[in-house]
Structure formats: structure tokens, C-alpha cells
Amino acid sequence: MMERPLTEHISSTRAPLNLQEYEAVGGYQALRKVMQQMTPQEVTALIKESNLRGRGGAGFSTGMKWSFVPMEVSGPKYLVANADEMEPGTFKDRWLLEGNPHQLIEGMIISAYAIQATLSFVFLRWAYKQAAQEIRKAIAEAYAAGYLGNNILGKDFHLEMQLHTGVGRYMCGEETALLNSLEGKRATPRAKPPFPQVSGLFGKPTIVNNVETLSFIPHIINKGASWFQSLSYTSDGGTKIYGVSGKVNKPGAWELPMGVTMRELLEDHAGGMKNGYRFRGALPGGASTDFLIEEHLDVKMDFTGVAAAGSRLGTGTMVVLDDKTCPVGFVHNLEHFFAQESCGFCTPCREGLPWTEKILYALEQGRGTAADLEQLLLHTRLLGPGNTFCALAPGAMEPLQSALKYFREDFEQHIQAKKCPYAHDSH
Hints:
- NDH-1 shuttles electrons from NADH, via FMN and iron-sulfur (Fe-S) centers, to quinones in the respiratory chain.
- It comes from Chitinophaga defluvii.
- This protein has helices spanning about 20-25, 30-35, 40-50, 60-65, 90-100, 100-115, 130-145, 175-180, 210-225, 225-230, 260-270, 305-310, 325-340, 345-365, 370-380, 390-405, 410-415; strands at about 80-85, 120-125, 160-165, 205-210, 240-245, 250-255, 280-285, 290-295, 315-320.
- By secondary structure, the protein is α/β, with parallel strands linked by helices.
- About 50% of the residues are buried.
């Protein structure tokens, strides 16, 4: 039977496990094992060996990231769970936060021990009210049980944990902007280097990991690195929470072996396209990834496979484009979002994204010209990687550049017909 370590104890028909229920299914056993038998270095080595790659989008080796923390430096170190899930089309972390908060908290305590952090934060998206309630309750239970605070499980290890609710900026998903926000400053990204592992929150060594990443930690401690690798179809270890939204029969999220194909996700889990709709393409990992089309349906949805097909796995949550939805309107909607969410810190992003959005709006309104397509192509280069301070604008260009590549005839029809050809369709 297929193992689903992250979600096996999550059910939509009941409240999340409280502390006693979580302990009854093996909760906090990994923390006990770590405190009794493992040094911080051994924890980091095990996570590195498991090949757990960051589930927030970048896919960087988690153990490798931890190993960059200068352990010899005295003074405070910090751990932050990035729960600021604002990528359009992405809803995987919400499932874990609302469904099994103790799993995240145990993962955070073990991770904090590995880097010897003394203070940890759950940086939560402002709109996740239910999650906030569950996390607060779980943190209080963990304190009462002695899993947080001073001398955890009798060991000379102290950890405080706080819930911090963000103010609702997409920018806070970028780890250095998140740290600025946590310090009470404007959410703008920082220059790197120095990287947060060396100089992060308040200038101290800091690790920022995604909710899904941290939730895996107790399971890897309990069952080992080779078990984690065996869950996957490919060399990227573990399971992955995949999602599908759009005109499919059963939109949702599922925990599946890393490396399932787009076709399996779409047909077996999301129930295929709704009657009367045809698949045209999908953003495989949330709004800031390149479109993949029908010829890519057998691509393995892992970091390597999706990259080889010309996109990114990102968050693994697929946004489907159907044949009755205008690709120009689809991309305009996304660029409107990204333009709004730019922090304004660097000129290409601040000026380029609203300009891109205006051009797409003009095309949708039937006021576009052939020169507009050249302008859009130019922007995909000028706002691309290496030209902006952080990855927001390059990410925003991914759906646009791939739409111009795969759906160019749709853009041209808008210009020739002087209107959106899809305008008469009911959406």
C-alpha cells in the first residue's frame, strides 16, 4: 500500500489530532529519539542523506542548507517556518497546517535542535484564520507537555516558538523579505550574500524552511534516509503534495510518490477534464512557472523532470488551462497579481510588471497591435533572471514567456479580430 506519511492522520471529517491523539499515533517519538540518541550534527547528516529537497519551490537540499549555519558562532540562532502560502493556485501547506499542526511543530523542534536555534517562528499567511487557531492551540499544548520551553525532555536545549501572522504580501514568500517583515520592516528582499544561514533575522544565523519540508523531519528521523528515498519514483526523495485546480472533475490535493506524471495527476486523481472542456496546458507548480502542454503530459513531476521539460516543479500544484479559457486573459490575470505584489524595490519589476499588465489588458480589450507582442517578448528578457533584485519578476515572466511560445496564435487573433475571441464564451 502506498505510504502517505504527511497526510495519513489528516481527515476532513474531524478536527486535527490534539497532543494526546498525536502521541498515540507515534507523535513526538522522533523528538525523543533525537534528544536521547543524536547530536545536532547527526540530525543534519541524516536529513542530508535522505535527499529531502525544499518543498517551497526552489528544491534546494534541506540538510545542505542547515549545514551552512556556522555552529561555532555564539549567540542566538533562529528557525522560521515559511507558511506564507500566497502563490496563486497553491494550497498544499494549508492542508498540513489545518490538518496536523503538531507534525509541523515536532519537525520544527527537531530542526531547531539541529541548528541549535533558541527561538522559532511560524510565519503564517494572514488569510489562514483556521490554521492560526490550530497552530496556537498546538503550540500551547506542546509548551504544557514540556516539548517547548526550557530543558526540553530533560536535555540542555531550550526553544521558544511563536506564531507570527503576516500582513498579506506575496513578497513575504521570499525568505529575506519574510525576515525583514518579521523584524517589523517593509517586506523588501535583501542582498545576498550574506545568506540568512549566516546573517538572517536580526543579523543572526537563521534557517527558513517551508511547512511541507519541516513536516517530513519527524518521519525521516523515525524511519531513516533510505525509507524516505524508497517512497519516490525518482532520485528526488519522498512523497510530494500535488494539487490540481481548473476545469477538472475533481480539483484537490493528494500526497503521492515524488515523480508521478502530469497525466496520472490529471486523469487518475483529478478525474480528467470536465465534460465539454479540453486540456490545453498547465502551470505545473503554481502561477510563477512556465506552461507545459499536451506533449508534456508524461513528464515526471519531480525537480529534474519538470526542469528538463522547460518549466519548474515549484510548489507542485498544477493550474490547468482549458480550451474555453482565453490564454491572454489567463496570463493578464496573473500579471495583474504580480504587478500588485511587487515590493517596488527594483526598477525593472516596479515599472516592468505594470507595463506588461497594461499591454495584456489592451490586447484583451481589442486595442492591441503587433508591436505589443514584441514589447511583451522584450519584457520577458528584461525582467528575466539576473536583471532584478529577487525572483518575483522572473517568476512572473514564466507564464507569459511560455504563453507567447505555445499560444501565440491566440495573441495574434486578439490583434486581428480587435477583440478577445473567447469573450462570447461563458466562463
